[in-house]
Design goal:
Blueprint lengths: L17 H13 L6 H18 L4 H14 L11 H22 L4 H17 L6 E2 L3 E2 L2 H13 L9 H12 L13 H14 L5 H18 L4 H24 L3 H19 L2
Antiparallel strand pairs: 1-2
Organism: Macrococcoides goetzii
InterPro entries: DUF2785
Protein name: DUF2785 domain-containing protein
Length: 277
């Protein structure tokens, strides 16, 4: 088995045989959950993506890699503050790139496409370890990576808008998650969750009016359900950051003017609710 370390960024992969490249890919994918942040981010992930984009893997191999990712995103799901999150989170990123190359390679069966949708939504819903940067181990960033994956699925040619309601509900679930110390998101997770929203809008998976209706209902439900203790305050902070980021993103895009206008109302009302009442 060929092994690489954090000293091997200049490794001559072109000298390997196709079988050696396949062995190397599988080894890096299996070990994508390493707690060595440099090795995980700068070598394993980068090399896996490069190889997916450039190597002539057979469709059978691409299917096998997809199935490995689907298995690894379930690894340790439900654990909090354990190293298992790195394998789930980075396997989800590799799965995102597999979805991205499918239009050129057409290797995903209908059953596998449906499995990707269902298991990715389940992962996004049930992840409990929402740490961003982990000191000494680098980025875990599970919610950010799952947002990338869901957004990639939404923009794929096999997405069905019947999943809109379920995905939007899971966005609500994630905005109500806090770290074990009751802290809110601090590493721009709400920015990454917006990738999903604007994928839906830009791809016309949902109309602007329908999304605004959902947004209004979601905000009212959140305000009614959250108490005014520390936990409730920080959940509202998650929503506030989400709304503010959405507002500036939509305004900067120069479209979705109805959404921008409604967000102004929601953000002002939330300010009054949090700081005036």
């Amino acid at each position: 088995m060929i092994k690489i370390s954090n000293e091997d960024n200049q490794y001559n992969f072109e000298s390997l045989s196709q079988q050696e490249k396949e062995n190397l890919f599988e080894s890096m994918l299996e070990n994508i959950g390493t707690t060595d942040g440099y090795l995980r981010d700068n070598i394993y992930l980068m090399r896996l993506v490069e190889m997916l984009e450039s190597e002539p893997f057979t469709n059978e191999k691409l299917i096998a890699y997809t199935e490995i990712c689907l298995e690894q995103i379930k690894y340790g799901l439900g654990e909090i503050n354990s190293d298992s999150v790195f394998k789930r989170s980075f396997s989800a990123l590799v799965l995102y790139f597999l979805v991205a190359i499918n239009p050129q390679r057409n290797f995903l069966s209908n059953d596998l496409k449906q499995q990707i949708i269902h298991e990715s939504i389940y992962l996004f819903k049930n992840e409990l370890d929402i740490r961003g940067y982990v000191e000494g181990k680098g980025w875990a960033h599970s919610i950010a990576h799952y947002s990338d994956l869901i957004a990639g699925i939404v923009t794929s040619d096999f997405y069905d808008s019947k999943y809109n309601e379920e995905i939007l509900d899971v966005l609500n679930i994630n905005l109500q998650k806090l770290n074990v110390d009751k802290s809110c998101y601090i590493d721009d997770e709400e920015e990454r969750m917006l990738f999903i929203v604007f994928a839906m809008l830009d791809q016309q998976r949902i109309s602007e009016e329908a999304y605004i209706n959902w947004l209004n209902d979601s905000n009212k439900t959140m305000l009614n359900q959250t108490s005014k203790n520390l936990e409730g305050f920080r959940i509202r902070t998650n929503y506030k950051h989400f709304y503010q980021s959405m507002y500036f993103r939509a305004k900067g895009m120069g479209k979705y003017k109805k959404l921008v206008k409604q967000l102004e109302v929601i953000i002002n009302d939330l300010f009054v609710e949090m700081f005036v009442k």
